[in-house]
Amino acid sequence: MRKMKDSGIAPNVVTYGTLIDGFFKCQGQEAALDVYRDMLHEGVEANNFIVDSLVNGLRKNGNIEEAEALFKDMGERGLLLDHVNYATLMDGLFKTGNMPAALKVGQELMERNLSPDAVVYNVFINCLCRLGKFSEAKSFLKEMRNTGLEPDQATYNTMISAQCREGNTSKALKLLNEMKWSSIKPNLITYTTLVVGLLEAGVVEKAKYLLNEMASAGFTPTPLTYRRVLQACSGSRSPYVILEVHELMMGAGLHADITVYNTLVHVLCCHGMTRKATIVLDEMLGRGIAPDTITFNALILGHCKSSHLDNAFATYAQMLHQGLSPNIATFNTLLGGLESAGRIGEADTVICEMKKMGLEPNNLTYDILVTGYAKKSNKVEALRLYCEMVSKGFIPKASTYNSLISDFAKAGMMNQAKELFSEMKRRGVLHTSSTYDILLNGWSKLRNGTEVRILLKDMKELGFKPSKGTISSMSRAFSKPGMTWEARRLLKTLFKV
């Protein structure tokens, strides 16, 4: 462009548009905006193509507010924005989660009497479905047809997905039938969405029927489809359903690789179905697919969930024997198993092994250790690890704080518990209803009505209510001779219990 200017040739709007679009496609946002500013400086007015390039480019770089402002500026400059420009901005706003703003842009489009195309209607329908306004979305579908536009796969997939998200599988199936009657062929996305929705709703037989229909239509499941479907059917907690769906998808032409098998093993192990997962491991080996660290991590998790810790450590040993390197997830799973089994005292061995492998504890490691030692009332070790954790910049989870607070509360050390409660707030960790229950129980045992009233007031403001167990504990504590009035005042003035 510099050579053009040096030669006395003034770049026109096409030159500028090509450069702006090209820079955005090459991740050169600043360069694209520099060209746009240069264009305005030279007195060249933007066209609709440039509007699209700028809005799309800014949106993809996470600058939707700037895109919105630029769009408005273009209109104020007198550029006649078309329905494509509006659709681009609507889609950008929708994809950043700003549905109300997207609908507002759409309403402006309608008010300007611009003729929307199928893309605009699809964005409208998508926004309305995301907002749960299904009847309005249906009205737009009807209006779309009345204007002579035909809905496409994207239109129906959007509506089917929205109904499945809400658990309305019967309405989703009606949309599938409507789609077929309109001679619109379902695609892989349609089938995947419906199968996942049906499995999540427990409608297993219909889901299996659609998997067979999908295969008959010539669609081959991808590993992503497989993972989504398997995770959905895992809600049945039946290994037979999971394995049957696996076989159906293999029959539909799914290429069995390490990713597919790892998904199956993980889903089975997450539900404690480790025996079935071990059979799958044998099947893998029979197909010549060697297990990797992810496979063994899943098996270790399965054994830990089934409280078979010895098997978990045996699987870890087998992993090492096969020359595989454990990762931080491996050790965190083993530590989590020890914590759940009340065997946190054995954690030192695992930590030493972990460090020997060149791995350092992460946030989750510390959460497990602090929780485990707190549950065992080992305050010294729990606090030592807590201090080490925060000194490294890690933030404990609310459940970790709750374990520490509970340990002190059980010992009647309420000032220390209160300090941890304050520490939570300072570190930006939100108090949970359980946090308040723990403290209420602790202060009630000490019959400290002042602290209990403060906590009850806080709970009410946050929309929390004490659990039945906490209410019983407070009632017992404050119904002692001379405390009955205090009990009535604490409970009845703040909560209808």
UniProtKB/TrEMBL annotation:
Keyword annotations for this protein, in alphabetical order, are: Repeat, Transit peptide
In the record for this protein, the PPR repeats are positioned at 12-46, 47-81, 82-116, 117-151, 152-186, 187-221, 257-291, 292-326, 327-361, 362-396, 397-431, 432-466
Listed SUPFAM superfamilies: HCP-like (SSF81901)
Listed transmembrane segments:
none
Q: Output the InterPro entries linked to this UniProt entry.
A: PPR_rpt, TPR-like_helical_dom_sf
Task: Spell out the protein name for this chain.
Answer: Pentatricopeptide repeat521
Q: Which organism is it from?
A: Zea mays (Maize)
Q: What is the lineage of its organism?
A: Eukaryota, Viridiplantae, Streptophyta, Embryophyta, Tracheophyta
